[in-house]
Amino acid sequence: MRGSAVVIGGGIAGLAVARGLLRVGWSVRVLERSADLPQAGTALGMWPEAMRALDALGAGDDVRAASVEQRGAAILRPDGTPIARIGRGRTARLVSRPALLAALARGRPGETVEWGRRVDGSGVLPEADVVVGADGVRSVVRAVHFGVAPRPLGTIAYRGTAPGAVRAVSETWGRSQLFGITPRHDGATNWFACLRDGADGDADGAGARRTEAEAATRLRELYGDWHRGVQRVLDHLADVDERRLYDVPPLPSYVAGNVVLVGDAAHAMAPNLGRGACETLLDAAALTEALSAAPDVASGLRQYDAARRPAATRVVRMARLANRLSTAEHLVPARNVAVAAAARLS
């Protein structure tokens, strides 16, 4: 089947869907509120299934050329001693968000984007055979057509990049907070920090967002006595991004009439498993396959929903649990013992 699609949102989800549908002969428009693709962003993990989806979308080789391969990760204590090593049997590629977006936008997908096009909350969407809500965790499409708002995770995240290369992925877990470090293909370092609301001195968890300088100062106060790998990043903080974290509760369906949700609009999740972008790419490949093979839109959207919603819902739940576990406030020694035992069994 071929038809027309309007995609609301020109991020990873929207560009991936546009790329997929264009490849099977659909007419596509992408409406994106930003003025252009972002030029900043930290690394995203591309697991093997995400790379297969990128290959199906025709962007796999571009992502391989702009990424670094990584196997496994270490979980450390604040003094640098190991808790566990996880994921030793799986390989992921780490690619920066700008590089992934550029790969997805290359060629015709980028030409379909209408920049500076904001969709309001009136519920009126452009005419098309399919309308794809790819507008992120605070999706207007989801709010209007599915009536579901994101829910807070109770944690705050900071992220950015630092000069200098690292060879390995690590997460350091303390009480109520963690600090992660990953390589980039260009010889720089990605870093991210996560802490429970209130752990940064904001007792009610509702304080005003800090400036970049204030956030950097607070991070040095919170993590300055952690091991040398963390301190090296803290010495070179710049362009610090701070945000409270949310996920999307399980939905009864990703489909309402001819409207379908993909990516964070459907299943925004805690970042702890490194699966958000992967699940988004799997959505795009599955939606493309379902709509191209089905005899009509309704059956294609049902097929997509059946293929993706149960799997994505499980990952959202697992990511929420990982977020709570990694920033646990109590029973930290017992948590570390349990994580080490689970890693040995995996």
Automatic annotation (TrEMBL):
<dbReference type="InterPro" id="IPR002938">
    <property type="entry name" value="FAD-bd"/>
</dbReference>
<dbReference type="InterPro" id="IPR050493">
    <property type="entry name" value="FAD-dep_Monooxygenase_BioMet"/>
</dbReference>
<dbReference type="InterPro" id="IPR036188">
    <property type="entry name" value="FAD/NAD-bd_sf"/>
</dbReference>
<dbReference type="GO" id="GO:0004497">
    <property type="term" value="F:monooxygenase activity"/>
</dbReference>
<keyword id="KW-0503">Monooxygenase</keyword>
<dbReference type="Pfam" id="PF01494">
    <property type="entry name" value="FAD_binding_3"/>
</dbReference>
<feature type="domain" description="FAD-binding">
    <location>
        <begin position="118"/>
        <end position="318"/>
    </location>
</feature>
<protein>
    <submittedName>
        <fullName>FAD-dependent monooxygenase</fullName>
    </submittedName>
</protein>
<keyword id="KW-0560">Oxidoreductase</keyword>
<feature type="domain" description="FAD-binding">
    <location>
        <begin position="5"/>
        <end position="75"/>
    </location>
</feature>
